[in-house]
Amino acid sequence: MRMYDIISHKRDGGKLTAAQIECFIEGYVSGRIPDYQASALLMAMYIRGLDNEETAFLTRAMAESGETANLDALGTVADKHSTGGVADTTTLIAIPLACACGLKVAKMSGRGLGHTGGTVDKLEAIPGMKTALDMDEFFAQIERIGVAVMAQTLHLCPADRLLYSLRDVTATVDSIPLIASSIMSKKLASGAHIIVLDVKTGNGAFMTQQDEAFKLAQAMVETGRSAGRKTAAIISDMSQPLGLAVGNALEVGEAIDVLSGRVKGDLLTVSLALASQMLILAEIAKDEVHAQQMLLFAIESGQALAKLAALIDAQGGDSLVTKDTSLLPKARIFEKVKAQKDGYLSAVNCRGLGEAAGLLGAGRIRKDDIVDPAVGFIVKKRIGDPVMTGETLIELHANDELRLKQAVHHIEKCLTIEQKAEKPTLIYNTVC
C-alpha cells in the first residue's frame, strides 16, 4: 500500500479504510513515512474532514501505536479528561470523590503548557509527590487503594506525540476529528472502561465557541463508544477561571478546601457533575440526583479528603497537607490588583489570566521551562459580582519582583468593569 495513493484518495474526498489508516500510523511511527507525506495527509484530513468511522479508525491506530494498559483484572475502572483551562482543578476533586464512592479510577495526566495548567504540575507541588510511575506501579496502586495518577510516558501513544508536533507547524491543529483522536487515543491506551470528558468553551478554552465544543464532545463520545468504552461529556464554561486559585500549590490548597467542605462554588459544581457521570456510567448511582447525594456524603463524612490523602501518601507525598495546607510551597511577595471604579465585573480575558500565571512562573511557555509551584494568584471577584473602587480583584503571589510587575500589568488589561453584568452559564450541556 503506497502512501501516495492514500494521500490522493483522501485529497479527492475519498473515505479512508482502517487498513489505510493503520498503514499510515505504523509507517510514520516507524520512520518509513517522511514528514512531508504525513503533513500532506494531515492537510487532506483537515480540509476534507473525517467521518465518525474514520475518526474511530485513526484513534484506535494511534492508541495501539505504543504501550497500552490492560486494566480488565481490576474490574470497572474510570478515567476523566478536561480539554484544559485556567484554575481547572477538577481532577484533584472529582477523582477522590468518585473513588470514595467505590469506583476505581486510573488517570494518566499531562503537564501544563501555554495558558493552561497541568494536573502533574499541581500534584508535584505537594512535597515528595511522585508522578513518574511505571505501569506495574500504576496497576498495583489502583488495586491497593483504588486510585492512581501518573504522568504520561513517552511509550504511550507515540503516534499522537509525533503527529501533534507535526500538526503544530502545519496549521492542522484546530480540526475536530484530529483533536478528538488525539485526546481519545491516550484515553483508550490508558485502559479505563469508563471515560468522562469535560469539554471547555469560552475565551479561556481551546474551543471558544459553544457549537464547536459540542461537536468535539459528540465526536469524542462517539469515538469512545465505538471502542467499547462507556463515555460521556459535559460542556462547561471557561470564560473565567473555574476555581478561585490559579497556580499549582494554590490550586492544590483550593482542592483540599473543597474536599473538606470549607469551599463551594463553580469548581465544586463542575467536579460533582463529572464525578456524577462516572458513578452513573459505572452503575453505582442510578441517576444524577442519587450520584450527587453519594458525592456530597463523601465530602461531609471526610471520606473524599481521606481518599486524596491516601493517593498522596501512596505516591510518596506528604499527606499532612490535607490537614494543613500551610505545608504547601508559599510565595514571598504579595500584590493586589484593585478596582479603579465602581460597577460590576462584566468580562474576564481568561486566557490572558492564564498567561499572567505563566509570567509569574506558574506555567510554561516552552516545554523545558521550570515551574515555580508557589506562585500564582487568588481571584477575589467573579463575573457578575459588584465591585467598589479600591476593592481587591486579584491577589498575586510571586517570588520575583520583575515577574510580578509584568503579571500585574497583564492582569489589569484582563478585567472589565461596567455598570451591569450577567453571570455566565456554568454547564451548557451533557453528551451521553
- Which class best fits the helix and strand makeup? alpha/beta
**Mind describing the biggest β-sheet?**
6 strands, mixed
- Spatial ordering of strands, largest sheet: 3-2-1-4-5-13
Q: Report the end-to-end length measured between terminal Cα atoms.
A: 38 Å
* Number of helices, where a helix is a run of at least 4 consecutive DSSP H or I residues: 16
The total strand number stands at 13
Write up what this structure looks like.
With 432 residues, this protein is of the alpha/beta class. The chain has 3 domains: 3-49, Transferase, Pyrimidine Nucleoside Phosphorylase, Chain C (Transferase, Pyrimidine Nucleoside Phosphorylase, Chain A, domain 3); 72-322, Pyrimidine Nucleoside Phosphorylase, Chain A, domain 2, CATH 3.40.1030; 329-418, Aldehyde Oxidoreductase, domain 3 (Alpha-Beta Complex). Helices cover 45% and strands 16% of the residues. The protein is built from 16 helices and 13 strands. It has helices at 3-11, 18-30, 35-48, 52-63, 91-100, 119-123, 135-145, 158-169, 176-190, 210-226, 248-259, 266-281, 288-300, 303-314, 350-360, 401-412; strands at 77-82, 104-109, 147-151, 194-201, 230-237, 245-246, 333-338, 343-348, 376-379, 386-387, 392-398, 415-418, 427-431. The chain has a 6-stranded mixed sheet, with helices on both faces. Helix 4 (52-63) packs across helix 10 and helix 15 runs antiparallel to helix 16 (401-412). The longest helix has 17 residues, at 210-226. The model has no long low-confidence stretch (mean pLDDT 95).
